Amino acid sequence: MGQLIAVAVITILAVISPGADFAMTVRNSYLYGRTAGVLAAVGISLGVLVHVTYTMLGVGLLVTRTPMLFTAMKLIGAAYLVYIGYKTFVTKAQVDIDLSSDSGLTKAGALRTGFLTNALNPKTMLFVLSTYTQVVSGDTPVFQQIGYGLFMSLAHLVWFALAAVLFSNQSLRTRLLQRQSVLNKVIGTVLVGLGMVLALTPSMA
C-alpha cells in the first residue's frame, strides 16, 4: 500500500507541474479545437508508456549510466521543443478560424505532437526512472510494475484531457483567439525556453 501511495503522489505532482506537455495541450486546444487537444493528451499518455517500457526492460538504467546516450536523447527532445516553439511564435493570427469545426490540424498530427512532446522529454524520462527505482525491486511482480506504468499514463491522459476541454471551451477559445498573436508568442517563447533549458541542463553523470 505504501508503494501505491508513493507512486500516486509522485505521479500527480509530476503531472500537474507546468511543462512542455501542458503548453502543447493548450496550444492545440485553443488553436485547433477540442479534438486536437484531447488527441494531444492521448499522445502525451502514450509517450509516457514509451519511457515505462524501456525502463522495465532495463534500458533506462543504460541511458542514465551512459552520459553520451542521455545527452543525445536530451538534445533531440530539446530541439523538437525549440522547433515547435519557433513555429508557434512566428504563426500569424488567423482571426477567421471557424470555431464550428476542428480543422487546421489532422488527427494524426495532433496525436503526434503530444506523443513526441513526451516521448522525447527528458523530464518525463527522469520522472519514470526515478519513480521506478524508488518503488520497484527484484521481487516486484511484473503485473504490478505494468500497473504503475498504466497509472502514470492514465493520470497524464485525464489531466491533459481536462485541460483540453477547458481551453477549447467555445467562449474561452473565442477570447483566446482574439488575442491569438500574443498567445502564440507567449506559448512559443515558453516552448523555446523549455527546450533551451533542457539543452543547457548538465547531463547526468
TrEMBL record:
Subcellular location field: Cell membrane
One term of GO molecular function: amino acid transmembrane transporter activity
GO cellular component: plasma membrane
Transmembrane keyword on record: yes
Top-rank lineage group of the source organism: Bacteria
Membrane topology designation: Multi-pass membrane protein
Secreted in keyword set: no
Keywords linked to the UniProt accession: Cell membrane, Membrane, Transmembrane, Transmembrane helix
UniProt xrefs under InterPro entries: LeuE-type (IPR001123)
Residue ranges of the TM segments: 39-62, 69-86, 146-166, 186-204
Protein name: LysE family translocator
Species classification: Bacteria, Bacillati, Actinomycetota, Actinomycetes, Kitasatosporales
